[in-house]
Design goal:
With 493 residues, the protein is of the alpha+beta class. The protein has 3 domains: 4-358, Sodium/glucose cotransporter (Up-down Bundle), CATH 1.20.1730.10; 368-444, no CATH class; 455-492, no CATH class. It is built from 18 helices and 6 strands. A 4-stranded mixed β-sheet has the order 4-3-5-6, with no helix packed on it. Strands 1-2 form a two-stranded antiparallel sheet. Helix 6 crosses helix 7. The radius of gyration is 24 Å and the shape is globular. InterPro entries: Choline_transporter (IPR052244), Na/Glc_symporter_sf (IPR038377), Na/solute_symporter (IPR001734). This is High-affinity choline transporter 1. The chain crosses the membrane at residues 25-54, 81-109, 115-137, 144-162, 214-239, 259-285, 320-340, 346-367, 374-390, 420-440. GO terms for molecular function: choline:sodium symporter activity.
Length: 493
Amino acid sequence: MVGGGYINGSAESAARDGVLYTQAPIGYCISLIFGNFFDLHNLFHIIFVAALFYAPKMRGEGFITMFDPFQLKYGKKMGGLLFIPQIFGDLFWSAAVLAALGATISIILDINATLAIVISSAVAIFYTFLGGLYSVAYTDVIQLLFIAAGLVIAFPFSLTHSAVDLGRVADTWLGTIPKESIASYIDVYLLCICGGIPWQAIYQRVLACRTVRVAQVSTLIASVFALLMAVPPIIMGVADWNATNYDGPVPIPRNMTSFILPLALNYLSPLPIAILGIGAMSAAVMSSADSCILSTSSVLTKNIYQDIIRPKASEKELVWVLRISILIVGTLGTLIAIFADTIYGLYILCSDLMYVVLFPQLTIILWMSQSNSYGSLAGFVVSFGLRLLSGEPVLGLAPAIEYYGYDAARGTQLFPFRTFIMLIGAVCIVAVSLLTNFLFMRGFIPRRYDFLKCLRQRTISMRYGTKDRELQEIEDPDVTLTLKGSQNGSNAI
């Protein structure tokens, strides 16, 4: 969560619209804290685990990744379809990181922002292409250290600079929320909170913890740490640029607010500190870029190409598919970063489809045993289709559907359409699942027409101590997912 898009985007949003509109740091941290199941040990001992009841539920069922329940219950093809929101989320995340990196490089080298994005993207793609997992593993170890070091070193100088006077901007620093924008404001907050739950990156770390307690403590620490990391860039974004050596347009135009953080580091700190701070931030952002590119490419290779298109693909073939995917993902991320004029907008957008499509899917598959692949498919098509038709200003997509209160002058939806679409998708999943279960199990539709094969029982034998699973598929009208060998006995979805 903490990376180039997070840090640069927070500074950009605070400088452009005020702290009230910098919703991502608080929203994503709430998704880690309030999205957590709590255990009561003794009287007031409350600790948290990632994702509101989600991670403990998945640990109890014995899952290893967030997509396990989808692929085990709905099949690999339907599970592969549900990877699409994750791919788009990672792609927008990559674009946000590459845009942040380009903004930083353009300030360091004093070159055109587009050229800086292309250069930085080419470097990230090149060494990810050659190094793969090893390059990401080694760079990710020091990513947060670099970000923290860069901010900690530069922040005191920026805070004490004469140009940074919080009293001067006390009336405008927080920003204002017009009455007509309250609904859309809440909509974005819900997107950040609930859209931060169905992320594989979270479960990858939480489910890898040795015990539930370790997961609880580490998640709580991570959420607090992430929130603290947003404070320095937000404060740096309110500088009085007339009191610095900055010779550009003042106030800084909205299309240049993505440069706020590197500009602050450059003009509010002594030269040696500025070089050290910007260098540390650049290295950290580069690390975010390669991990985003590799993550998306790995999903395309393993879960789409190998599981659906070519199940018998050789190891060598998969390596080349991964490399080609790296080139494609890196190129797409670069193009989005070039044409989108806001890092913060991309950062918010990366959780958009996760909220409207994946959040209801994950919630229902974990807590509704009657859900099936037909309901999942219906919910996916309706949610994904409505979201595309609703438009997206960050990507320049005009809306085909103008909801109540649509602001034609700004081209923005004031209606909380994301939450509306998410709820419609959830209703579709439940209604279609119950209807198809009834029709198939009562014989109104012959079982030979069950082309998604939802009427079957999947039994999974868990081998503790290894990561191997034995999967048996047995045709049965009882739609259950049973995990045998778990510490809690048999569990059913």
